[in-house]
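Re: that backbone. Tokens:
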């Protein structure tokens, strides 16, 4: 997070290869003739590759700024591409009229396109309004930074950003906002750097705090969990789900969703054996990370992890957070 690179797709100059593209296509294979839902359309990198491979694609996104990329693919593939505005947490409802769906791809978190637009307020590397709203509506990062009490802000930074120095950061933020509200990304980044310092070679000190605020603003963990279960309801037997995540908290949720046994307590040999729950996903592929060539091309890929699995014929589960390892803010209801 935070290192600049090319946008995922340049509407004028053609596509820029998104993270783990070949690996995603391999996980969803075969693609030709299949109906695929790209639940996090973004700049359209995965959708374009899927369309070029012969798939029928439905793109979903809540960000209004994706419109130029939607238009580009609509013109290029009028018979095999359509777009639905909304969140991927509702993907089964949004594409209910599409007929059987063979595959779903989800790319979790902020996109290169969003990071590269200073006015969106996602990046501490560019000066812009402290916003971070993917849908451009609702509570902004500025609302949280300027409105939360110190303890609540510290708990948020710790739970969603794994920021060990969250209390000190929160204290500095509260002190800084006394005279004038904190309004810009660089202003907040400077406050955080002042609070905890910066060692040469380390990641920017604001990295974890910006991650936490973005996750909170966009309800990203709720979206992820609901989206995973929506895909489970939607996909036909043999359907494939591929999920690319960018930090350990998201990856843990995906891992345990595919294989609930990973998140459960270790069985004791002294207790009666409990019958295993039916598998909704099998086989579950091993996690895949970016190789050296991709990392050289795009430093943002360094934290990307792809997990994928195949849907069985077992009935979909009701949404259940138990065992998924979803971070909880201390003191929250």
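Recovered sequence:
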């Amino acid at each position: 997070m935070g290192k600049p690179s090319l946008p995922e797709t340049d509407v004028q100059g053609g596509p820029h290869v998104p993270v783990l593209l070949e690996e995603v296509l391999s996980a969803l294979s075969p693609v030709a003739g299949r109906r695929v839902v790209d639940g996090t359309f973004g700049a359209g990198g995965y959708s374009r590759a899927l369309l070029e491979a012969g798939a029928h694609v439905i793109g979903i996104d809540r960000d209004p700024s994706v419109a130029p990329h939607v238009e580009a693919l609509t013109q290029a593939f009028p018979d095999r591409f359509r777009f639905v505005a909304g969140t991927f947490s509702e993907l089964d409802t949004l594409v209910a009229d599409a007929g059987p769906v063979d595959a779903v791809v989800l790319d979790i978190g902020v996109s290169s396109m969003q990071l590269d637009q200073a006015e969106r307020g996602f990046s501490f590397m560019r000066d812009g309004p402290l916003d971070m709203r993917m849908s451009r509506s609702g509570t902004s990062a500025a609302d949280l930074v300027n409105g939360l009490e110190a303890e609540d802000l510290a708990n948020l930074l710790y739970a969603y950003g794994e920021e060990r120095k969250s209390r000190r950061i929160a204290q500095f933020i509260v002190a800084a906002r006394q005279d004038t509200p904190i309004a810009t990304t660089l202003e907040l980044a400077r406050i955080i750097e002042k609070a905890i310092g910066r060692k040469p070679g380390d990641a920017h000190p604001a990295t974890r705090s910006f991650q936490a605020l973005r996750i909170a603003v966009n309800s990203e963990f709720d979206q992820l969990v609901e989206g995973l279960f929506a895909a489970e309801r939607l996909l036909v037997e043999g359907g494939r789900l591929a999920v690319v995540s960018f930090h350990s908290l998201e990856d843990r949720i995906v891992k345990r969703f595919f294989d609930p046994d990973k998140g459960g307590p270790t069985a004791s040999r002294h207790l009666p054996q409990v019958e295993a729950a039916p598998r909704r996903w099998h086989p579950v592929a091993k996690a895949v990370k970016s190789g050296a060539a991709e990392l050289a091309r795009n430093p943002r890929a360094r934290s990307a992890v792809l997990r994928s699995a195949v849907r069985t014929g077992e009935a979909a589960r009701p949404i259940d957070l138990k065992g998924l390892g979803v971070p909880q803010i201390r003191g929250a209801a």
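The chain has two domains: 9-112+220-311, 136-217. The first helix runs from residue 21 to 28.
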